Structure formats: structure tokens, C-alpha cells
């Protein structure tokens, strides 16, 4: 059996196709690229029961649905297969008997960003990348710096000066070239773009390489497997760049094509802070893309993204699952952070706390707990 059933890259806007064996970033039309797999071939050679029997307890148990073609290119710190924790106290107060939280705070580097870094860096290694660069709000930069160090790849990371201290320290400890900018992640992105143009670095910015999303996708694969190949009613996801939500939707589509899950997909809910809610505004106006959110500000630093490159993919996932987008004010999400800790013993970050109160009545819902807070 093949280690990976990757087929090619494709553009979701103009449908152009590209090789997955070359270091290609965006489509010529400017759109992010997505990975396609030989699903019909995989369907005939692997069943969900065979996968469930595997002893590998990391995201690499799904290697056939990941883009790394050779096992010796895998860069891993044991990421993935995080628990789905029942939240009975919170759930009973909301009338949701099966409220679950996917605890991403226990992954290497302390956040779900390790998933995208593991797969993205592994594929970069396979493609012969020697140096990468990216802007970040903190967690992603720390994760990519650490995985790049493990892979022997040089990393240049640019983040806002008021990013959480722990993420700055992780980058520095990993030996990355760290630059701090007085501004937002969008300002950091401009600096990275200039460095890439001048020095020819590999651009690891959100959705400017096609493989981070494949790592994030494994959250959806895990949810399906952990629920015995049945899907919840609703999934709430704290949304900045939105790659995790896009990835989960992609995972469910692939599982449907394999015949491993059936029926209606979960309603996907993008949760943003009121101080930075471009996806929410676009959804309310029934638009397919968002507008830049000026003067964005929120204590939920990880979702302070005023304009996401993949906003059209986030909105498409919401529309196609009959989902929605909601905004939570800082005071409420900080109150919810304390309530989750006090009622369930789960100390999550403000971003995760934003997704703690489902906006629709449902019987089964999954929310996400991200990095454990260390600077609050």
C-alpha cells in the first residue's frame, strides 16, 4: 500500500492543476491551492475498520490522506490524536447533552498549530526547502520554528511585538530569525512578502503553501474516528485565518467520498471576536469574501486576523453546511474562560473560550480548546 495517495494540487477558483512534487505556492490567479488525493484507489485498498485498528497514536495514522510521499521525510514530535473531552456541566446548562471539547492544548508546542507545522514542514523537507519565512500572531510561528529546527530547515518568523511572550521565546529557543513589528499580522505579512521577494525564501504564510491545511484537516479525521465514524451536529471553531475550519470541512468531504461517513455534514460555525469579525460581517451580508477589518483589537490574540487569504473558503464551508458565523465580545469570552475552568477544570485560552457557547440548539456539538493560556 502506498504511504500517500496524493494526486495533485488544484485551484478552487479557476480549477488549474499543479504537481505536488514541486514547491508551488499560490495559483497563477492568486488563489490558495488545495491537495487532491486518489480517493477511489484508496477506497478499494483501505477501510475505516483497518485504520481504527492501527497502533500509531499520532496524526500520521492517516498518512494515506496526507501529502508526504515518503515516510523518511516525516518530521514529527508526536502531534495529533488529542482527546474529545465531555463537558457535562457546561452541556447541561445549555441543554446540550453531548457537548464535547477537542483539547488541542496538549499537542507539541501547546496548540493545534503543531498539526499544520508537522505536515507543512515535512512536505517542505520532501521538496528540498532549506529556508522558510512566515508572519504569525504567535502560535503558528512558534510551531513552525520548532518543527523547522527538527527538520534542519532555517526559519524566519515575523510577529507583532505584543504577541504572547511564550511564543516569542519558543521561536528564539528554536534558533529562528525572529523579527517583531509594531502592528498587526497583516503588517508582518508585508515584511515577509518583501523578504521572500528579495531572498527567494519558501513562503509558509497561511494558505500560501498548500500543506498546512492538510495537517489541520486531521482534526476532522480524528473527530470522525473518535465518534466511531459518526459526525456531530455542530462544530464551533475559533476563526482567524480559518485554516482549521477549512481543513475540517475538507476532511469530511474526503471521508464521504471514501464511504466512511454518511449523512449530513455538521453545521460549521466560525467564531470571531467582536473587535475583529470580518468573516461574521461577510456572512451577515451573504458575501463570498470578507472586507479588511480596520483597527482590529481583541484579547483573543490568535484570532486577530483582519483579512484572511482563504476567507472565501471559510465562507463556502459555512454556506455549504448551513452553518453560521458569530462574534463574541472580549468581556464575554474572558468570563467563559473562567466558567470552563471552574465548571469543567479545563483551562483554555481566550480563543478557545470564545467557542464555548453554541449559538444553535443541538444534541451534539464539538468546540475547540487551543493553547493553554500562559500569559493571562
Largest beta-sheet details: 6 strands, mixed
Estimated helix fraction: 25-40%
Number of domains: 3
Q: Which residue ranges are poorly predicted, with pLDDT under 50 across at least 5 consecutive positions?
A: none
**CATH secondary-structure class of the largest domain:** Alpha Beta
Give a short synopsis of this structure.
The protein has helices at residues 39-43, 48-52, 88-94, 113-126, 139-151, 165-173, 185-199, 212-226, 243-258, 278-284, 311-320, 330-344, 350-353, and strands spanning 6-10, 17-18, 34-37, 84-86, 98-103, 131-135, 154-160, 177-181, 202-203, 234-238, 267-273, 324-328, 364-369.
Describe the protein's architecture and organization.
- By secondary structure, the chain is of the alpha/beta class.
- The protein has 3 domains: 6-73; 84-110 and 213-369, Rossmann fold (3-Layer(aba) Sandwich), CATH 3.40.50; 113-203, 3-Layer(aba) Sandwich (Rossmann fold).
- 36% of the residues lie in helices and 16% in strands.
- The chain is built from 13 helices and 13 strands.
- The strands form 3 sheets. The protein has a 6-stranded mixed beta sheet, sandwiched between helices.
- α4 packs across α8 and α5 (139-151) packs parallel to α6.
- The chain is globular and about 50 Å long.
Amino acid at each position: 500500500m502506498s504511504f500517500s495517495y496524493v494526486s495533485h494540487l488544484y485551484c478552487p477558483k479557476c480549477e488549474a492543476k499543479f504537481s505536488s512534487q514541486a514547491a508551488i505556492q499560490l495559483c497563477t490567479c492568486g488563489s490558495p491551492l488545495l491537495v487532491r488525493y486518489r480517493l477511489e484507489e484508496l477506497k478499494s485498498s483501505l477501510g475505516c475498520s483497518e485504520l481504527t485498528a492501527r497502533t500509531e497514536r499520532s496524526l500520521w495514522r492517516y498518512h494515506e490522506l496526507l501529502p508526504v510521499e515518503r515516510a523518511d521525510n516525516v518530521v514529527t514530535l508526536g502531534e495529533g490524536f488529542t482527546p474529545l473531552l465531555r463537558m457535562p456541566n457546561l452541556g447541561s446548562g445549555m441543554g446540550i447533552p453531548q457537548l464535547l471539547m477537542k483539547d488541542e492544548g496538549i499537542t507539541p508546542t501547546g496548540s493545534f498549530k503543531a498539526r499544520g507545522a508537522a505536515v507543512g514542514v515535512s512536505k517542505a523537507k520532501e521538496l528540498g526547502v532549506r529556508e522558510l519565512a512566515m508572519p504569525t500572531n504567535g502560535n503558528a510561528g512558534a510551531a513552525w520554528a520548532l518543527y523547522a529546527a527538527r527538520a534542519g530547515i532555517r526559519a524566519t518568523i515575523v510577529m507583532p511585538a505584543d504577541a504572547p511572550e511564550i511564543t516569542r521565546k519558543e521561536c528564539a529557543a528554536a534558533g529562528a530569525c525572529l523579527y517583531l513589528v509594531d502592528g498587526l499580522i497583516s503588517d508582518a505579512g508585508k515584511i515577509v512578502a518583501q523578504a521572500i521577494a528579495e531572498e527567494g525564501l519558501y513562503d509558509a504564510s497561511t494558505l500560501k503553501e498548500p500543506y498546512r491545511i492538510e495537517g489541520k484537516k486531521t482534526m476532522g479525521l480524528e473527530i470522525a474516528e473518535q465518534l466511531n465514524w459518526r459526525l456531530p451536529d455542530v462544530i464551533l471553531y475559533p476563526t482567524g485565518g480559518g485554516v482549521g475550519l477549512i481543513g475540517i470541512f475538507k476532511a469530511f468531504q474526503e471521508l464521504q467520498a471514501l464511504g466512511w461517513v454518511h449523512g449530513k455534514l455538521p453545521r460549521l460555525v466560525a467564531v470571531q471576536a467582536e473587535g475583529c469579525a470580518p468573516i461574521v460581517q461577510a456572512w451577515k451580508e451573504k458575501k463570498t469574501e470578507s472586507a479588511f477589518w480596520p483597527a482590529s483589537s481583541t484579547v483573543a490574540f490568535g484570532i486577530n486576523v483582519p483579512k484572511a487569504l482563504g476567507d472565501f473558503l471559510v465562507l463556502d464551508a459555512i454556506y455549504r453546511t448551513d452553518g453560521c458565523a458569530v462574534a463574541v465580545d472580549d468581556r464575554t469570552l474572558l468570563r467563559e474562560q473562567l466558567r470552563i475552568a471552574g465548571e469543567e477544570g479545563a483551562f483554555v485560552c481566550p480563543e478557545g473560550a470564545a467557542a464555548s457557547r453554541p449559538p444553535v440548539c443541538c444534541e451534539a456539538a464539538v468546540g475547540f480548546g487551543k493553547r493553554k493560556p500562559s500569559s493571562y
